[in-house]
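Cross-posting from the modeling subforum.

Setting up a comparison between two proteins and wanted a second pair of eyes on the formatting. Protein 1 (sequence, then structure tokens):
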Amino acid sequence: MSKRKSFVLRINPETFKQLEKWADDEFRSVNGQLEWIINKSLKDAKRLSNKQKPDTDKNQ
């Protein structure tokens, strides 16, 4: 299992509310949704190397 880095994120309450709803709609936790969004953005920007395989795409 890969190691994960923890960090604190300050976010606007309304933004969090919308993110929480989106995560619920896709049967993910807020943390899982954030990981999915970040990984998708990195892939779309071609910033992920082929060796990096995000494990958050299992639900998609």
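Protein 2 (same layout):
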Amino acid sequence: MNRNEIQAILILLEDPDIQIYDSISKSLLNKGVNVIPDLEKAWEVTVGSLTQGRLENIIHKIQQNFVNQSLSNWVKEGSNDLLEGAFIISKHQYPEILFDDIQNTIEKIKHDVWLEINNNLTALEKVRKLNRIIFEINKYSGNTTNYYSPQNCYINQVLLLKKGNAVSLGLLYASIAQRLGLPIYGVNLPKNFILAYKDEFHELISDDVTGDDILFYINPFNKGAILGRKEIDHFLQQQNITPVESYYQTCSNLEIIQRLILNLIYSYEKLENKAKISDLKDLLKISRLKNP
């Protein structure tokens, strides 16, 4: 938009008539994210609180619509790239971030691990290499002092601060592993989140889904500690949770992103941020639609 068009928008937004505001708002929403830089320029040159508030509201709606549509597309396309799903959720809070920046960081870690592993290593040896690069060399760790902070759920902040919660660290770990072709997947354990290393050969020769195709479990919040089924039994017993088979099985990328959204909702409930909760509940609904 040129200067005259921006000025025209400002004049219309200054009008107290709600119908005029609704009309200009719908028109701008239809233009999508490409109009945001112009709206931000308009915000900078206006001094009226009514107009600034309306501009902020329109910008937010455009950004949220973009995130909603991005998530919908990701689900429709099969939710194959876990990292992309996490990136979309981060765009809800950090609209300026770029996927290339996120992916480049992950690719560098992946490359460092790739240099150290080969097909002659056992599954356990490969995981130990992963653990060393992620937790010892790159210093990623669980945020034990502020576990429920929303920042622990946003992948860009996890990469920046090198701290996260069980879900985000698991997501980070699984994203690196899967880019290396390692069969490591999330396990949607209540009150925790862990990973499982699957036996690909067993999977190829058997339709068994009892858990026999899982070699061992990994706890990314505890620096990649190796767990067996007995440790999960003990954890569930400690938490007074009745064991069900799904707690021992791997989950989909979509289920991990849903868990990430639920964690964010819980974090913002503790902060009593109703606007964020509303936006995130919309994202959760989109993720649960069979044909969003």
